[in-house]
């Protein structure tokens, strides 16, 4: 089945939720269109009566003309009221349906696996949620009623044309298949450019989002010129596809109009002959020419909307690509831990790869007892962060099992697994809200007192109270009104508030100065007390007191033990530690 047709059927699922209002809008549109279809015949009656009066040498029948004017005014009111009512109701239907679509996209985003965002530009995902939905909304509001009106208008006009003169009607309807052939040929060529245009727009949004986020780095390395050239290439690509799609679809209107003008000429000449031969009244000829216009006008409107419709078609396919993405799979019957979480973590013959031909972790085995602190070290690409992703079930293991308190995490609900963990990332994330609410993000039901207590444990309470408005200070969009170290402490406070049984600290002290590192270390020691903790660190001096150190390289644990044990072995860890000590 054609993708466009399939997408339209899926769109109807959203519109039919408001089918009462939708069909009422269609009823008003049909009423207005049918009323409009009778106009030419009624408007032709005075012309015919005046001609008859003049031929008979009688005075003009103004009473008859006045009655026709009254009828025309009433019909005009009905017609305009119908069009206004249908437009207002359809706008309500479209806006509510698109609200539901946006809600579904947002819910879908929350159900997508982390792997989706690892392989898609965030700007492109954002473009699908905003630009593509806006394009679809505009198209539905502009074109849906016009297409319905055009279809009914054309049919009713053709019926009236056959009632007036069969021969002229047969000649006139030849322009309909001619126009359809022209339109179909042009759409077949232009549609691919509309799809490329929407894709190019997504790429441009992704590039802008990426560069605006790293704008300070761009300035630091004087990448303005290179950035401008890359941006210019993307803009030119978008402009090229936009021009081709707009130009090709723009050919539709003049070509369709050409068929209409040829029809006008034929009708005018043949109709005049029928009037002279008295087989047709002059009023009916006037009405017939108006019906030719009534057939041509809606076809012209549809062709004018061709660019909007094709753009919306491409946008719709991009939207449903997101909605069709494979979601995180959950078990039919989720196993639940019996009793409180102890925090024992076991890796049993764990293997994992992002792609089948490139294994990353193979036969990984280790056991962490409740309350132990485990440090994970190794060179870049050794698999440290991947190990954490597997712990959190951002990815599922290819083989083997990860167990918490002897229960395989693959048999548990992902939400329950993640609720056992607290996480402090190297890239501290804060959102545009007060400091109080940013900390409360770790436990939404926490009281203000609990938030302040968590901040004190994280050694960030003093910093907060020295800031303007204290806990009520708003963090700006890029969190640039607090320092990197303060961000880190705030995220530690958030983790403390969530009160997890298992804690993950991913490079938590790698980007702060010595004084803040000491504060963070003290906060970490407090939050790790009584909890199973996984610490990923490049600064080996920060993990000397760890109960277990796992040394990873190329996805495997090559050494494990305490700090003293690993130094005594004189292996990879000893070389790594001494190299850092020498640098310091």
TrEMBL record:
One of its GO terms (molecular function) is ABC-type oligopeptide transporter activity. CDD domains: ABC_6TM_Tm288_like (cd18547), ABCC_Glucan_exporter_like (cd03254). It is found in: Cell membrane. Residues 345-579 form the ABC transporter domain. InterPro entries: AAA+_ATPase, ABC1_TM_dom, ABC1_TM_sf, ABC_transporter-like_ATP-bd, ABC_transporter-like_CS, P-loop_NTPase, Type_1_exporter. It comes from the Bacteria. The chain crosses the membrane at residues 21-44, 64-89, 144-162, 168-189, 258-276. This is ABC transporter. It comes from Vagococcus elongatus.
